[in-house]
């Protein structure tokens, strides 16, 4: 057994304040500087392919907003090319540090546990160059980072705040056909991180319940903080929803009168883009005349187990007889992604598991409704019947029925899109950063209480 594990098992767990009581008296101090850890994916990488996705967006946007409320952030991530400078200023108050750990390229996420020692060494080297107390707190993202954060927090004598983003037990309980289960080593690793963390940040109340139910997290250590959306970038343009959609379609070369269901994200079984294709084929089987009215963009690149068959989705479109309707596009930057959202009639998210589903909020902020699987955080992100439709299960026929509503009612996308844009307004990053700062403050205050009690 790891000495850290045995030490933590004897660490007191209570009493701890419930998430609803995280507001503290005015005298409580927020951290001045946070070490944020993202081992397996860099905030500088393009979301939508490889291991880059919603977590990248989350880290970048949260770090910027934390800096705007005077919490400096240094993000440690693994260097993936030899040409990267050791440190990059991402924004005022946000620094990205590149750590050499393993070969730069060709290293799969599953191989990264063997590089955690090297990554930890790099983090400790950076810390050794500073005065004592330079970092007030460690915030780790994903279980791999959690193990580095566990050691760093212990060594520096500061709290560890951890965000899972996804959990092996939850993913394994809802595997897509052909997907690969998460290994037992990850389950064990996540259990250890949950035990070690002073605070766990969950995206939704359901995720908080999953941490408690599946990983025996102490309820008082779990705080719910909804992720946000960049409302300056993701918004309708040119006045109303219909005008915004028309302008975006003109820029992207899409037909003005088509019904356009969009998939945006990593192409892998977990995200289930195949269900959108199968639903499209089901619609055409019922009514072949719809072919002239449909365009189906798929924006993203292969990821995870989808890398094993990178052309699989194109081949499926050909087998289903809809290759002429599907437009495959590589991952795009955030500004152009916003245009794809605006151009779409509806975003389709048939995922088997989503801790939150930032893509759904981004699309709604642009004035586009969402058809989503009723899993994970999507029932929070999407207001069923108002900003979109939630579908139980993953039967393509059910998604076809939801899509048919947009085909039968040409104004539905505009009406529902207006409600979607209003719904998204409650998910700004300012709110998320303020709530995260409160979690940091609570963790620091609690650690000081324990230190005082330990020293009599």
TrEMBL record:
1D-myo-inositol 3-phosphate binds at residues 40, 51-56, 109, 142, 166, 186. Keywords: Glycosyltransferase, Magnesium, Metal-binding, Transferase. Residues 1-27 are annotated as: Disordered. It comes from the Bacteria. Residues 53-228 form the Glycosyltransferase subfamily 4-like N-terminal domain. Coiled coil: none annotated. The keyword Transit peptide does not apply. InterPro entries: Glyco_trans_1, Glyco_trans_4-like_N, Mycothiol_biosynthesis_MshA. It catalyses: 1D-myo-inositol 3-phosphate + UDP-N-acetyl-alpha-D-glucosamine = 1D-myo-inositol 2-acetamido-2-deoxy-alpha-D-glucopyranoside 3-phosphate + UDP + H(+). Residues 246-421 form the Glycosyl transferase family domain. UDP-N-acetyl-alpha-D-glucosamine binds at residues 46-47, 54, 266, 271, 332, 354, 362. Pfam families: Glyco_trans_4_4, Glycos_transf_1. Mg(2+) binds at residues 341-342, 344, 368. PANTHER family: D-INOSITOL 3-PHOSPHATE GLYCOSYLTRANSFERASE (PTHR12526:SF510), GLYCOSYLTRANSFERASE (PTHR12526). Belongs to the glycosyltransferase group 1 family. MshA subfamily. Catalyzes the transfer of a N-acetyl-glucosamine moiety to 1D-myo-inositol 3-phosphate to produce 1D-myo-inositol 2-acetamido-2-deoxy-glucopyranoside 3-phosphate in the mycothiol biosynthesis pathway. Homodimer. This is D-inositol-3-phosphate glycosyltransferase. The lineage of its organism: Bacteria, Bacillati, Actinomycetota, Actinomycetes, Kitasatosporales. The gene is mshA.
